[in-house]
Design goal:
Main location: membrane
Pfam families: PQ-loop
Family: Belongs to the MPDU1 (TC 2.A.43.3) family.
Shape: globular
Strand content: under 5%
Helix content: over 70%
InterPro entries: MannP-dilichol_defect-1 (IPR016817), PQ-loop_rpt (IPR006603)
Number of domains: 1
Distance between the termini: 83 Å
Largest sheet: 2 strands, antiparallel
Membrane topology: Multi-pass membrane protein
């Protein structure tokens, strides 16, 4: 089967000429390697697209409440640190963008959440420092330059060596661990998920689970795979807490309950006066 050029071009760009010919033109659905590769690419692009909006509901929820109550600041700081390192590592490794693209969007959204958390507690100077520090660190870790030697050899230089960056990528495994633990503990202590967005939590878990598959299929890097496996485990715990404390997050506070009862009694008094 021949697809129109406007469909064939992106299809070939996604799954490659060989798999396109095998799966689309030849209908060879016994080509297991190409099927796995096509599924991985589809999942990868879906994760990247989802990553562009995964934390938007969380941002909206914080803005509407003008509060980040129940959200762990240290969790977001550590998660953003891991994201910045992972983003720089993947860029320097020239990995397919379908295997890490969502990290870029998640990093930007995390920065927005951190700024909002500090802003609503009156710490605008700290918000500026946090934002500029992460942007500067990402620029330093990911920046490379090339120059040509006298003999014509092209050399790639970087402020942070590839070996040092690989070490930092390995460090994202414990960083990811500690980024989720404070939030898990916060939820457990309060018996509620506070201003956490259910959409963000559940989609983060689904995305990390799918990312394990795409990494196994497309990237031969045990460091990246280990990080995603750990994230999936801890995101599973957060998703379970969200389900367990679902109704707890909407329970009224004692003070608010008293206010409501008082409002109810006063309104009933008004109705009595009208009847009189």
């Amino acid at each position: 089967m021949q697809l129109p050029f406007f469909l064939k071009t992106p299809a070939v760009a996604i799954i490659g000429e060989t798999c396109y010919t095998s799966l689309i033109e030849d209908f060879n659905y016994r080509d297991v390697p190409c099927i796995k590769y096509a599924i991985s690419k589809g999942l990868g692009l879906g994760i990247v697209a989802g990553g562009a909006i995964v934390k938007v509901p969380q941002i909206v929820k914080i803005v509407q409440a003008r509060s980040a109550k129940g959200i762990s600041f240290s969790s977001y700081m550590l998660e953003t640190l891991a994201c910045v390192i992972s983003l720089a590592y993947n860029v320097r490794q020239n990995n397919p963008i379908s295997t890490y693209g969502e990290t870029f969007f998640v990093t930007l959204q995390n920065l927005a959440i951190l700024v909002l958390m500090l802003h609503y507690t009156g710490k605008n100077t700290s918000a500026f420092i946090v934002l500029t520090s992460f942007l500067f660190m990402g620029n330093i870790l990911g920046r490379t330059s090339q120059y040509t030697q006298i003999d014509g050899t092209v050399v790639t230089a970087a402020v942070v060596s590839q070996g040092a960056l690989a070490f930092l990528q390995a460090a994202t495994i414990p960083i990811n661990l500690f980024s989720k633990v404070p939030q898990i503990i916060e939820n457990y202590k309060s018996g509620s998920t506070g201003q956490l967005s259910a959409f963000t939590v559940f989609n983060y878990f689904a995305g990390s689970l799918a990312r394990v598959y795409t990494t196994l299929t497309e990237v031969d890097d045990i460091l990246i795979l280990s990080g995603f496996l750990l994230s999936t485990l801890l995101n599973c715990v957060l998703a379970l807490q969200m389900a367990l404390y679902w109704n707890s997050s909407t329970l009224p506070v004692k003070g608010e309950k008293g206010d409501i009862s008082q409002a109810g009694s006063s309104s009933s008094k008004k109705r009595v006066k009208k009847l009189d």
